[in-house]
């Protein structure tokens, strides 16, 4: 099953990933049904090593769930960036992925030859300690 994301939401994630470089940025995605992302809710990365991992405070997860719920939306995804690292889940990402049915998006950010930052975003379903790449469809 593909994951659908609004063009503006994806552009927003990649912009935040560039601004946060060389640190990992993170946040949540919301949609009206699972499998789609209409908007994002950036969160703080509270990891002690934000260059190589991300961690979202549990109260921010709860806050986001409630904020989406009051508007009839669902939490459908979690995004974070990988500065100078490919867009695939690390062992830590797999270990910490604990939201069932939610899609995990990873945006790789790296310097190109022009001195600017390029991004590549991929989506994964993470279940039972395994990551399965899912096609990201921009709508
Ligand atoms: Zn990661």
Keywords:
metalloprotease; metalloexopeptidase activity; MPN; hydrolase; three-stranded parallel beta sheet; 139 residues; 9 strands; JAMM/MPN+_dom; single chain; Cytidine Deaminase, domain 2; 39% strand; six-stranded mixed beta sheet; alpha/beta; 23% helix; binds zinc ion; globular
Strand content: 35-45%
What's the level 1 CATH class?
Alpha Beta
Topology as H/E string?
Answer: EHEEEHEHEEEE
Q: State the separation between the terminal residues, measured CA to CA.
A: 15 Å
Pfam families: Prok-JAB (PF14464)
Protein name: M67 family metallopeptidase
Domain MPN: 3-130
GO molecular function: metalloexopeptidase activity; zinc ion binding
Please tell me about this protein's structure.
This is M67 family metallopeptidase. Pfam families: Prok-JAB. Keywords: Hydrolase, Metal-binding, Metalloprotease, Protease, Zinc. InterPro entries: JAB_dom_prok, JAMM/MPN+_dom, MPN, VirAsm_ModProt. It is a single chain. The protein is α/β, with parallel strands linked by helices and 139 residues long. It has a single domain (3-138), classed as Cytidine Deaminase, domain 2 (3-Layer(aba) Sandwich). Helices cover 23% and strands 39% of the residues. The strands form two sheets. A six-stranded mixed beta sheet has the order 4-2-5-6-7-8. Strands 3-1-9 form a three-stranded parallel beta sheet. The chain is globular, with a radius of gyration of 14 Å. The model has no long low-confidence stretch (mean pLDDT 96). The structure holds zinc ion. Residues 80, 82, 90, 93, 106 line the site of zinc ion.
């Amino acid at each position: 099953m593909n994951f659908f994301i609004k063009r503006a939401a994806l552009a927003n994630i990649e912009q935040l990933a560039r601004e946060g470089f060389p640190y990992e940025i993170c946040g949540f995605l919301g949609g009206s049904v699972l499998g789609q992302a209409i908007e994002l809710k950036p969160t703080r990365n509270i990891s002690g090593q934000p260059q190589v991992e991300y961690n979202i405070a549990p109260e921010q997860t709860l806050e986001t769930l409630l904020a989406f719920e009051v508007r009839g939306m669902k939490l459908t995804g979690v995004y974070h960036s990988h500065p100078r690292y490919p867009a695939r889940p690390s062992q830590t990402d797999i270990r910490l992925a604990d939201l069932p049915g939610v899609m995990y998006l990873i945006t790789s950010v790296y310097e190109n030859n022009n001195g600017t930052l390029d991004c590549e975003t991929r989506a994964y379903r993470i279940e039972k300690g395994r990551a399965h790449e899912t096609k990201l469809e921009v709508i």
